[in-house]
Amino acid sequence: MKTLPDFDMVLFGGTGDLAMRKLLPALYQQVRAGTVPQGSRILAAARKPLSREAFLELAETTCRPFLGADYDADTWRAFAARISYFPMDVQAGASYGALGAALGLHPDRVRVFYYSTSPDFFATISDHLGAAGLITEASRVVVEKPLGHDLDSSREINDAVGRHFAERQIFRIDHYLGKEPVQNLLALRFGNVLFEPMWRREWVQDVQITVAEQLGVEGRGDFYEGTGALRDMLQNHLLQLLCIVAMEPPPSSDPDAVRDEKLKVLRSLKPFTPADVAARTVRGQYKAGAVAGAPVAGYVEEPGVAPGSRTETFVAVKAEIETWRWAGVPFFLRTGKRMPEKLAEIVINFRQVPHAIFGEATQGTRSNRLIIRMQPDESMRLHLVAKQPGDAMALHPVHLNLDFSESFRARRLEAYERLLMDAIRGRLTLFVRRDEQEAAWRWVEPILESWAASEDRPKAYTAGSWGPAASSALLSRDGLAWNEED
Ligand code: NDP
Ligand code: BG6
User: Fold this and answer.
1) Lowest mean pLDDT, pick from 24-28, 307-311, 352-356
2) Please, what CATH class does the domain formed by 180-410+457-476 belong to?
3) Catalytic residue of the set 106, 128, 149, 237
């Protein structure tokens, strides 16, 4: 991979969960790959009053399990040499002095401000950076999701950040867009002619997008209480995946060409009426059960969760896209915590053959489907039927492996690695534009409002199951079922 330009990355929230699990490991991997120039610097900032040495020790101990076999002491030393630590309260203007002195006056040097803190601080940090004169022409800001908790709050944050950074400098991250199979789906759709004629209502019966996690809220109960699965996952990750599946071919891969097409999809989503919310959404909350053979507590027993909480840890939605291409094709989205396995996949179910010349037995086999899997493995498979060798004309399900992992032996980048490098290089294609984000909030808001106004509780599901029974019923009403393919 090509070397990056010299950069300074200021990591606000440098001691936090995201920084330790994803951001610092991603930067380490790039140092290991030799793409980070010698003079580049990582300036971590957080409240904890740590010395540089104490921060580096904390970072090494905490990041190491996330690096696995890729950890080695020499590379870590080379990585650590680029890191400094700034104990500061981001709300106090005076504390930006030391940061400014360290950054110095380098108008042409790439400067990335990564806001890995609560979004409540994004406006304040932007104001202080602006007042301290630290935002240069070559500066970028990366903001984490979810941005706000509804349309109004997201607008306020976007306005505040936008007072100091131009839209071309704002990188709204959605790490699902950085996953390799998602990129591969773009390549499959827009680099080949084969699928395009079939990528429409005449050939596609339904689309299913699942992001299931075995994890619970992992000590982030406080954060999750104000968020829930709809805001944490569906408003951003699942809707972005839906856009990648449903968008029209863009005229080029330029950031705005791609984002214009995604925006059109979001604006074409059939809005929810209160009656629709009852009929087309399911919310659930896990109760105690077992995941991977180990007993786990229910959501309300987790630290930081209010007794009687109505926060959803599972959501399933039937989305409809009101365009000529997709009219009548249901897009089913589901995501949940404490599911039986970690699974993230997009399933395109093509229609069955119009007339079964090999007998009814071939109907209903799980053929004619494309499965793009992001987790646990990264793969892309086209499921078909083929004749079983032998006398009889017996058909058997087979699949074509389309991920070419045999052809391409290069190391696969973690989503955050790719996106951080893109932010440093100034490539916006895989980042979300403000109007997309607002369209996504606009679409989910009636669901949030309807749930908030309702006396109903989320439906309980046992930890280690695939969510409440109502989730299966959502599909069975259309004569369909969630994919259970391996
Ligand atoms: P954490 O609560 O783990 O970390 C928050 C960070 O902010 C800590 O480093 C904390 O420093 C710092 N901080 C808090 N208050 C201040 C302050 N007044 N001044 C300076 N620093 C402060 O949060 P996460 O890392 O989990 O999340 C960060 C962001 O990323 C959030 O916007 C979240 O929604 C988003 N996100 C997180 C994901 C994850 O997997 N964790 C996934 C996707 C998005 P300290 O406590 O040391 O003082
Ligand atoms: C984050 C959510 O955006 O995505 C977390 O805030 C979730 O709650 C995580 O666990 C899942 O990401 P991945 O890449 O592990 O599927």
Assistant:
1) 352-356
2) alpha beta
3) 237
